[in-house]
Amino acid sequence: MNKVTLVFPRLRRESNVWAPLPLQAVAAPLMAAGFEVELVDGRIIHPHIPRILEAARGSLYVGLSVMTGYQIGDAVIISRAIKAAYPDMPVVWGGYHVSMLPEQTLAESYIDMVIRGQGQLAATELAGRLAAGEPVAGIDGLCYKDESGQAVISGHPRLVELDQFPPTPYGILDIEKYMVNDVGTRTMKYFSSQGCPFGCGFCAETSMYGRGWVGFPAERVLDDLTGLVEKHGVNAIDFADTNFFVSKKRVRAICEGIIERGLDLKWAADVRTRQFIDFPEDLRQLIRDAGCRRLLLGAESGSQEALQHIGKQTTVEDTLEVSRICNRLGIIARFTTMFGFPGEPEKDIEATLDMVEGIKAINEDFEVHGFFFAPYPGAPMYQEAVRLGFRPPARLEDWKDFDLTELHTPWVNPVYKEKVDMIIDFYMPFASPGPELRQKMTAGGLKSLAYRAMHKEAAWRVRHRDFRLPLEWRVKKLRARRHGQ
Ligand code: B12
Ligand code: SF4
Question: Which of 380, 348, 349 is nearest to 465 (CA)?
């Protein structure tokens, strides 16, 4: 049998189920090479293990896509179940986490191989070798165990051009399950490039793709988008690219093409603050005219020292400037920030709150999301964190609780965590309510009254930076605990 089974394990707290693009990307060349591919998404099948075992039967291998955090926990359960049912079935893991830590991953008996970096070529070559009964040694990016059980680690493979791969298959998905009401009522996730030329200290991108960047040519992107609109009734795209805007020429051609083809699409993408500011005005307007309605920008911190420390190559003023530009264009700016960088985390809270107030003064609808700094494997600051006392999990499974909403670094304490939690989960959103909360505040009735009171209280606290005796926050936490959140 020439079948490969690909599995997307479950995630925690995923309000929208996005298309499993990493596995669709891997499936494309496999299918073109004549292999049958079954993609099982643990997020949409309940219970998922029996379905995965059924799909895996007789496969050449089972490939799992895994991100640091909760997904590792589910991937471990799945892999153990596969090994228990089919002891000889090769279990292969791919994705950022295992690309950075192949030795630790292969130390587990239930994982046979790791594919590092871009997986399209290695996954296809592996299927070919297994189908032909040939040894797997020497595949670029493939790490495996030799006959004595010793891990053989491949170097990091180079980033290859994307145009050699066939279109990302959406037909292998139950596509309606991935249609999200987001930037449009039928929003689909799509990727048009991989990699990023920048090297921010907290980001693993540098180690994953060595600051390389490859993108589908504009015509190819336009054909894919046309297909999604015409075949599946998609009316919006959320680009999954790490950095969609690296090539100005390509961005211009894609935007012009969307307009020329009359594609009625709204879209969202990630951009670096400085990149967007440096674009000529006509290009920014073209981006808006071609349907861009939301940009995700890493503001990271309101402290210039912190920005310098993390190598962000941007300023706090850039964040405010990009807010003014987006406001003029009618594009929603969604910012991410992080708390708990090494240095002066307490002072950073103040500075970031100042910045948030500056953003909200430009446009109340602009969103600012807060997370904790977490040293991800492969990020340049990972080593710095280890020097400062961070102890990374010693076993693969222990990474399952590692995410951006928890504190993992020893230089900030639980009191700091509580303060940041209440600011990002409660006071920041209530002080500057977004459209959803504003609607609740004006809907009428007792609840509206309570929301309005909360808004007044939060706005006062943020303005005066006074978070002593946070009664309302404690009530919210109590209620959340009661509802099992
Ligand atoms: C969309 C997305 C999500 C979605 C995932 C939904 C989905 N269906 O994919 C959501 C929003 C849920 C999400 C969540 C998180 N994410 Co995220 N996410 C992304 C994003 C923007 C796009 C992923 C994507 O589709 N890429 C396109 C595909 C084609 O590329 P790819 O994923 O890299 O896959 C390639 C290779 O990795 C490899 N590969 C991957 N899987 C497999 C499997 C096999 C078998 C093989 C052979 C190869 C292979 O081959 C693929 C093709 O080249 C990436 C950034 C990026 N642009 O990649 C971050 C990214 C993957 N996320 C990241 C992080 C940190 C997270 C969180 C852990 C953050 C957090 N909250 O703590 C959470 C984890 C979720 C949880 N709490 O359980 C990091 C790194 C992850 C890591 N270390 O594992 C990334 C790289 C962002 C960054 N630059 O820091 N994320
Ligand atoms: S944070 Fe964004 S800009 Fe910085 S290296 Fe990562 S992907 Fe690139």
Answer: 349
Query: Is 164 part of a structural domain of the chain?
Result: no
* Nearest ligand 2 atom to alpha carbon 204: 6
Residue 26's domain comprises 3-144
Pocket residue to mutate for ligand 2, from 205, 276, 309, most atoms within 8 A of Cβ: 205
Number of domains in the chain: 1
* Domain contains 402: no
CA distance 290 to 312: 29
**Ordered strands of the 236-239 beta sheet:** 187-190, 236-239, 266-270, 292-300, 332-339, 367-372
Q: Largest alpha-carbon pair distance within the chain? A: 70
pTM: 0.95
* Ligand 2 atom at minimal distance to the Cα of residue 312: 4
CB of residue 402 inside a 6 A radius of ligand 2: no
16 is a domain residue: yes
Do 429 and 476 touch, CB atoms closer than 8 A?
Answer: no
- pLDDT tens-digit series, residues 383-411: 999 999 999 999 999 999 998 888 899 99
pLDDT tens for residues 275-303?
A: 999 999 999 999 999 999 999 999 999 99
